[in-house]
Amino acid sequence: MITTGVVIMNKAELKNFDKADETRPFEGKGHADIVSVGGRTVAHGYFEPGWRWSENVKPIAQTELCMISHLGYALTGRMRVTMQDGTEVEITAGDIVAIPPGHDAEVVGDETVEFLDFGEIDEWAVRK
């Protein structure tokens, strides 16, 4: 049998963020709990008031903008995402969003943003 990098699962796999595989702290104002399940990485991010990607993750990523794509669901709070071309979108609790690479983001208001991220985040906020 020839395989082409496809993960074949024949049993259910269960994880819980209460027992995350790892925690990735930001440079202040939050962190992301990470689990790997079904061959995918999923993050539960906590972005505290005043958090901004360009201040709290850029020193870790070492790129001018966030170059990771995100596919996620906002549980709480409000976050503004500014794309490289200047367009903006504001995410609020209950929103599902796809964000392409090339953006900055910031918490809006005084409520912590909780965000479930199913995007391409294997290397997101990983210290090198």
CATH topology group: Jelly Rolls
Our count of helices gives 2
Biggest sheet: strand arrangement: 1-2-3-9-4-7
Radius of gyration over all CA atoms, rounded: 15 Å
The mean pLDDT is: 92
Give the SSE order as H and E letters: EEEHHEEEEEE
Strand content: 35-45%
Tell me, what is the CATH class?
A: Mainly Beta
User: How many domains, in number, for the residues?
Assistant: 1
Percent of residues in helices comes to under 10%
Strand segment tally:
9
CATH architecture: Sandwich
| Spans where pLDDT lies below 50 across 5 or more residues | none
Q: Major sheet: size, sense and barrel closure?
A: 6 strands, antiparallel
Q: Any idea what the CATH superfamily is called?
A: Jelly Rolls
Decide which structural class fits the backbone.
mainly beta
Overall spatial form: globular
Instruction: Give the N-terminus to C-terminus distance in angstroms.
Output: 37 Å
Structural description of this entry:
By secondary structure, the chain is mostly beta strands. The chain has one domain: Jelly Rolls. The chain is built from two helices and nine strands. Strands 1-2-3-9-4-7 form a six-stranded antiparallel sheet, with no helix packed on it. Strands 6-5-8 form a three-stranded antiparallel sheet, with no helix packed on it. A hairpin with a 4-residue loop joins strand 1 and strand 2 (30-37). The chain starts with 21 loop residues before the first strand and ends in an 11-residue tail after the last strand. 24% of the residues are buried. The mean pLDDT is 92.
